[in-house]
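Practice problem 4.
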Protein backbone atom coordinates (compact mmCIF):
# COMPACT_ATOMS: atom_id res chain seq x y z
CA UNK A 1 0.00 0.00 0.00
CA UNK A 2 1.49 3.39 -1.01
CA UNK A 3 1.50 6.36 1.36
CA UNK A 4 -1.47 8.01 -0.34
CA UNK A 5 -3.65 4.97 0.26
CA UNK A 6 -2.28 4.63 3.80
CA UNK A 7 -3.23 8.21 4.55
CA UNK A 8 -6.66 7.82 2.97
CA UNK A 9 -7.23 4.77 5.15
CA UNK A 10 -6.08 6.68 8.21
CA UNK A 11 -8.44 9.56 7.40
CA UNK A 12 -11.35 7.16 7.08
CA UNK A 13 -10.45 5.42 10.34
CA UNK A 14 -10.01 8.53 12.45
CA UNK A 15 -12.73 10.74 10.98
CA UNK A 16 -13.46 13.45 13.48
CA UNK A 17 -10.22 12.94 15.46
CA UNK A 18 -8.16 15.92 14.26
CA UNK A 19 -5.33 15.27 16.72
CA UNK A 20 -4.36 12.06 14.93
CA UNK A 21 -0.93 12.53 13.30
CA UNK A 22 -1.25 12.01 9.55
CA UNK A 23 1.47 10.88 7.18
CA UNK A 24 3.18 13.85 5.51
CA UNK A 25 2.92 13.80 1.72
CA UNK A 26 5.01 15.17 -1.13
CA UNK A 27 3.06 16.69 -4.03
CA UNK A 28 4.77 17.21 -7.39
CA UNK A 29 2.75 19.88 -9.20
CA UNK A 30 3.51 21.08 -12.72
CA UNK A 31 2.08 22.72 -15.80
CA UNK A 32 2.01 20.62 -18.96
CA UNK A 33 1.79 21.47 -22.66
CA UNK A 34 2.71 18.53 -24.92
CA UNK A 35 5.98 17.18 -23.49
CA UNK A 36 5.03 13.50 -23.48
CA UNK A 37 8.57 12.10 -23.35
CA UNK A 38 9.61 14.45 -20.56
CA UNK A 39 6.49 13.45 -18.66
CA UNK A 40 7.56 9.80 -18.86
CA UNK A 41 10.99 10.76 -17.57
CA UNK A 42 9.59 12.89 -14.76
CA UNK A 43 7.08 10.33 -13.49
CA UNK A 44 9.57 7.48 -13.46
CA UNK A 45 12.36 9.51 -11.89
CA UNK A 46 10.26 11.01 -9.09
CA UNK A 47 7.86 8.16 -8.39
CA UNK A 48 9.93 6.78 -5.46
CA UNK A 49 9.84 10.11 -3.58
CA UNK A 50 6.49 11.63 -4.64
CA UNK A 51 3.07 10.70 -3.28
CA UNK A 52 0.84 12.70 -5.64
CA UNK A 53 1.43 14.23 -9.06
CA UNK A 54 -0.70 17.25 -9.95
CA UNK A 55 -0.64 17.71 -13.73
CA UNK A 56 -2.27 20.88 -15.06
CA UNK A 57 -3.03 21.26 -18.75
CA UNK A 58 -5.18 23.81 -20.53
CA UNK A 59 -7.49 23.90 -23.54
CA UNK A 60 -5.76 27.07 -24.77
CA UNK A 61 -2.11 27.88 -25.35
CA UNK A 62 -0.71 30.85 -23.49
CA UNK A 63 -1.24 32.83 -26.69
CA UNK A 64 -4.93 31.97 -26.60
CA UNK A 65 -5.10 29.36 -29.37
CA UNK A 66 -7.16 26.16 -28.91
CA UNK A 67 -5.07 23.06 -28.22
CA UNK A 68 -5.71 19.36 -27.57
CA UNK A 69 -5.46 17.87 -24.10
CA UNK A 70 -2.36 15.85 -24.85
CA UNK A 71 -2.20 14.05 -21.52
CA UNK A 72 -5.85 13.06 -21.70
CA UNK A 73 -5.29 11.66 -25.18
CA UNK A 74 -2.20 9.67 -24.13
CA UNK A 75 -3.04 8.70 -20.56
CA UNK A 76 -2.73 4.96 -21.24
CA UNK A 77 1.00 5.50 -21.72
CA UNK A 78 1.19 6.45 -18.04
CA UNK A 79 -1.14 3.80 -16.65
CA UNK A 80 1.39 2.73 -14.01
CA UNK A 81 1.07 6.14 -12.36
CA UNK A 82 -2.61 6.96 -12.88
CA UNK A 83 -3.49 6.22 -9.25
CA UNK A 84 -1.06 8.97 -8.21
CA UNK A 85 -1.96 11.61 -10.82
CA UNK A 86 -4.44 14.41 -10.21
CA UNK A 87 -5.29 15.70 -13.70
CA UNK A 88 -6.45 19.32 -13.59
CA UNK A 89 -7.98 20.64 -16.82
CA UNK A 90 -8.11 24.41 -17.30
CA UNK A 91 -11.05 25.22 -19.55
CA UNK A 92 -12.31 28.45 -18.01
CA UNK A 93 -10.35 31.65 -18.28
CA UNK A 94 -10.32 35.16 -16.79
CA UNK A 95 -11.26 38.20 -18.85
CA UNK A 96 -8.30 39.07 -21.05
CA UNK A 97 -9.36 41.81 -23.41
CA UNK A 98 -5.77 42.74 -24.14
CA UNK A 99 -4.99 39.12 -25.04
CA UNK A 100 -2.05 39.17 -22.64
CA UNK A 101 -0.34 35.78 -22.88
CA UNK A 102 1.00 36.08 -19.33
CA UNK A 103 -2.58 36.15 -18.02
CA UNK A 104 -3.14 32.68 -19.49
CA UNK A 105 0.19 31.32 -18.28
CA UNK A 106 -0.31 32.53 -14.71
CA UNK A 107 -3.91 31.33 -14.70
CA UNK A 108 -2.78 27.83 -15.66
CA UNK A 109 -0.10 27.75 -12.95
CA UNK A 110 -2.51 29.04 -10.30
CA UNK A 111 -4.82 26.13 -11.18
CA UNK A 112 -2.33 23.86 -9.39
CA UNK A 113 -4.26 24.81 -6.25
CA UNK A 114 -7.22 22.77 -7.55
CA UNK A 115 -5.14 19.63 -7.12
CA UNK A 116 -4.21 20.37 -3.51
CA UNK A 117 -7.63 20.01 -1.88
CA UNK A 118 -6.40 17.15 0.33
CA UNK A 119 -3.05 18.76 1.22
CA UNK A 120 -2.50 20.12 4.71
CA UNK A 121 0.18 21.47 7.05
CA UNK A 122 3.33 19.39 6.88
CA UNK A 123 2.71 18.25 3.32
CA UNK A 124 5.36 19.50 0.90
CA UNK A 125 4.29 21.02 -2.43
CA UNK A 126 6.65 21.28 -5.40
CA UNK A 127 5.82 23.78 -8.15
CA UNK A 128 7.44 23.43 -11.58
CA UNK A 129 6.94 23.33 -15.29
CA UNK A 130 7.05 19.73 -16.51
CA UNK A 131 10.53 20.26 -18.01
CA UNK A 132 11.99 21.29 -14.64
CA UNK A 133 12.74 17.97 -12.94
CA UNK A 134 14.06 18.07 -9.37
CA UNK A 135 16.70 15.56 -8.28
CA UNK A 136 14.93 12.86 -6.20
CA UNK A 137 17.61 12.85 -3.52
CA UNK A 138 17.36 16.63 -3.20
CA UNK A 139 13.57 16.35 -2.93
CA UNK A 140 13.94 14.18 0.16
CA UNK A 141 16.52 16.52 1.67
CA UNK A 142 14.51 19.67 0.95
CA UNK A 143 11.34 18.15 2.41
CA UNK A 144 12.97 18.28 5.85
CA UNK A 145 13.71 22.02 5.53
CA UNK A 146 11.65 25.14 6.12
CA UNK A 147 11.10 28.21 3.97
CA UNK A 148 10.65 28.62 0.23
CA UNK A 149 13.06 26.08 -1.20
CA UNK A 150 14.34 26.94 -4.67
CA UNK A 151 15.99 24.17 -6.69
CA UNK A 152 18.99 25.34 -8.71
CA UNK A 153 18.90 23.13 -11.81
CA UNK A 154 21.30 22.54 -14.67
CA UNK A 155 19.88 23.83 -17.95
CA UNK A 156 19.78 21.85 -21.19
CA UNK A 157 18.42 23.12 -24.51
CA UNK A 158 17.58 21.28 -27.74
CA UNK A 159 18.77 17.85 -26.49
CA UNK A 160 18.89 16.10 -23.13
CA UNK A 161 22.69 16.31 -23.21
CA UNK A 162 23.13 19.80 -24.70
CA UNK A 163 24.33 21.67 -21.63
CA UNK A 164 24.12 25.41 -21.05
CA UNK A 165 27.81 25.90 -20.26
CA UNK A 166 27.83 29.68 -19.90
CA UNK A 167 29.54 30.03 -16.54
CA UNK A 168 33.23 30.88 -16.17
CA UNK A 169 35.43 28.14 -17.59
CA UNK A 170 32.50 26.49 -19.34
CA UNK A 171 30.72 25.65 -16.10
CA UNK A 172 27.06 24.68 -16.02
CA UNK A 173 24.54 27.51 -15.81
CA UNK A 174 22.00 26.99 -13.03
CA UNK A 175 18.30 27.80 -13.43
CA UNK A 176 15.90 28.57 -10.60
CA UNK A 177 13.35 25.89 -11.42
CA UNK A 178 11.29 23.83 -8.99
CA UNK A 179 10.04 25.54 -5.82
CA UNK A 180 9.01 23.64 -2.68
CA UNK A 181 6.75 25.05 0.05
CA UNK A 182 4.82 23.62 2.96
CA UNK A 183 1.14 23.30 2.06
CA UNK A 184 0.27 24.87 5.39
CA UNK A 185 2.22 28.00 4.46
CA UNK A 186 0.49 28.63 1.14
CA UNK A 187 -1.46 31.86 1.53
CA UNK A 188 -1.01 33.33 -1.93
CA UNK A 189 -1.76 32.34 -5.52
CA UNK A 190 0.71 29.70 -6.70
CA UNK A 191 2.18 32.10 -9.28
CA UNK A 192 3.66 34.29 -6.54
CA UNK A 193 6.05 31.49 -5.54
CA UNK A 194 7.22 31.26 -9.15
CA UNK A 195 7.69 35.03 -9.29
CA UNK A 196 9.67 34.95 -6.05
CA UNK A 197 11.94 32.22 -7.41
CA UNK A 198 12.62 34.11 -10.64
CA UNK A 199 13.41 37.28 -8.68
CA UNK A 200 15.81 35.42 -6.40
CA UNK A 201 17.80 34.26 -9.46
CA UNK A 202 19.44 37.68 -9.43
CA UNK A 203 21.49 36.56 -6.43
CA UNK A 204 23.55 34.56 -8.91
CA UNK A 205 24.05 37.11 -11.69
CA UNK A 206 27.34 36.58 -13.50
CA UNK A 207 28.37 40.25 -13.15
CA UNK A 208 29.69 41.22 -9.71
CA UNK A 209 28.19 44.73 -9.80
CA UNK A 210 24.77 43.25 -10.54
CA UNK A 211 25.11 40.74 -7.69
CA UNK A 212 26.02 43.50 -5.21
CA UNK A 213 23.04 45.60 -6.29
CA UNK A 214 20.61 42.68 -6.21
CA UNK A 215 21.81 41.37 -2.85
CA UNK A 216 20.83 44.73 -1.36
CA UNK A 217 17.54 44.94 -3.24
CA UNK A 218 16.54 41.34 -2.62
CA UNK A 219 16.92 41.80 1.12
CA UNK A 220 14.03 44.27 0.80
CA UNK A 221 12.09 41.90 -1.45
CA UNK A 222 12.37 39.10 1.12
CA UNK A 223 10.79 41.41 3.68
CA UNK A 224 8.05 42.40 1.23
CA UNK A 225 7.19 38.79 0.43
CA UNK A 226 7.74 37.66 4.01
CA UNK A 227 9.48 34.50 2.81
CA UNK A 228 12.90 33.01 3.46
CA UNK A 229 14.57 31.62 0.32
CA UNK A 230 16.56 28.41 0.70
CA UNK A 231 18.61 27.46 -2.35
CA UNK A 232 18.97 23.76 -3.18
CA UNK A 233 22.16 23.41 -5.21
CA UNK A 234 22.53 20.61 -7.78
CA UNK A 235 18.76 20.53 -7.59
CA UNK A 236 17.96 18.73 -10.82
CA UNK A 237 17.56 19.42 -14.52
CA UNK A 238 15.77 21.88 -16.79
CA UNK A 239 15.28 20.29 -20.24
CA UNK A 240 13.78 22.71 -22.76
CA UNK A 241 13.15 23.13 -26.49
CA UNK A 242 13.50 19.42 -27.23
CA UNK A 243 12.23 17.64 -30.32
CA UNK A 244 13.77 19.51 -33.24
CA UNK A 245 12.95 22.66 -35.18
CA UNK A 246 9.24 21.94 -35.68
CA UNK A 247 8.66 21.49 -31.95
CA UNK A 248 10.67 24.62 -31.18
CA UNK A 249 8.54 26.67 -33.55
CA UNK A 250 5.38 25.12 -32.08
CA UNK A 251 6.49 26.24 -28.63
CA UNK A 252 7.34 29.75 -29.82
CA UNK A 253 3.82 30.04 -31.23
CA UNK A 254 2.29 28.88 -27.96
CA UNK A 255 4.21 30.18 -24.94
CA UNK A 256 3.86 33.49 -23.13
CA UNK A 257 6.92 35.17 -24.63
CA UNK A 258 5.03 36.63 -27.59
CA UNK A 259 7.99 38.88 -28.39
CA UNK A 260 9.66 35.83 -29.94
CA UNK A 261 6.72 34.86 -32.14
CA UNK A 262 8.08 36.51 -35.27
CA UNK A 263 9.42 35.40 -38.64
CA UNK A 264 13.00 36.03 -37.54
CA UNK A 265 12.90 33.84 -34.44
CA UNK A 266 10.97 31.13 -36.29
CA UNK A 267 13.33 31.02 -39.26
CA UNK A 268 14.26 27.35 -39.66
CA UNK A 269 17.75 27.92 -41.04
CA UNK A 270 18.60 30.32 -38.23
CA UNK A 271 17.39 27.85 -35.56
CA UNK A 272 19.31 24.97 -37.13
CA UNK A 273 22.50 27.06 -37.25
CA UNK A 274 22.13 28.14 -33.63
CA UNK A 275 21.78 24.54 -32.46
CA UNK A 276 24.72 23.35 -34.58
CA UNK A 277 26.96 26.16 -33.29
CA UNK A 278 25.98 25.88 -29.63
CA UNK A 279 24.27 29.26 -29.63
CA UNK A 280 21.07 30.52 -28.08
CA UNK A 281 18.07 30.61 -30.42
CA UNK A 282 16.94 33.89 -28.82
CA UNK A 283 20.30 35.62 -29.10
CA UNK A 284 21.09 35.63 -25.39
CA UNK A 285 24.62 35.35 -24.06
CA UNK A 286 24.42 31.59 -23.54
CA UNK A 287 26.72 28.89 -24.89
CA UNK A 288 25.78 25.23 -25.27
CA UNK A 289 27.82 22.08 -25.77
CA UNK A 290 27.03 18.38 -26.09
CA UNK A 291 28.28 16.27 -23.19
CA UNK A 292 28.10 12.50 -22.58
CA UNK A 293 25.46 11.15 -20.23
CA UNK A 294 26.73 9.94 -16.87
CA UNK A 295 25.57 9.55 -13.29
CA UNK A 296 24.74 13.25 -13.06
CA UNK A 297 21.62 12.78 -15.21
CA UNK A 298 18.29 11.29 -14.10
CA UNK A 299 18.74 7.59 -13.33
CA UNK A 300 15.76 6.63 -15.49
CA UNK A 301 17.29 8.42 -18.47
CA UNK A 302 20.70 6.80 -18.03
CA UNK A 303 19.15 3.34 -17.67
CA UNK A 304 16.69 3.72 -20.58
CA UNK A 305 18.60 5.72 -23.16
CA UNK A 306 17.03 3.67 -25.94
CA UNK A 307 13.67 5.31 -25.15
CA UNK A 308 15.11 8.80 -25.61
CA UNK A 309 17.46 8.31 -28.57
CA UNK A 310 15.94 11.15 -30.60
CA UNK A 311 16.59 13.53 -27.69
CA UNK A 312 20.27 12.63 -27.21
CA UNK A 313 22.73 14.48 -29.43
CA UNK A 314 26.08 13.27 -30.70
CA UNK A 315 29.04 14.39 -28.59
CA UNK A 316 31.76 16.03 -30.66
CA UNK A 317 35.20 14.51 -30.14
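Answer key:
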Amino acid sequence: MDRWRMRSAALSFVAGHTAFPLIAMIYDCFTFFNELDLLELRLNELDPVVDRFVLVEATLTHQGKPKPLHFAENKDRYAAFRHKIEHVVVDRYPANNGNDAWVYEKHQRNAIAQGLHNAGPGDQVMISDVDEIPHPRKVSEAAAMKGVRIFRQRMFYYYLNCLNASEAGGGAYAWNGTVMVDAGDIRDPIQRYRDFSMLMANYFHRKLTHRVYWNLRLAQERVRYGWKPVFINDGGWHFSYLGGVDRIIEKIEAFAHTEYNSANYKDRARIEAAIANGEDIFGRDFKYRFVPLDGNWPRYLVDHQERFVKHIGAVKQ
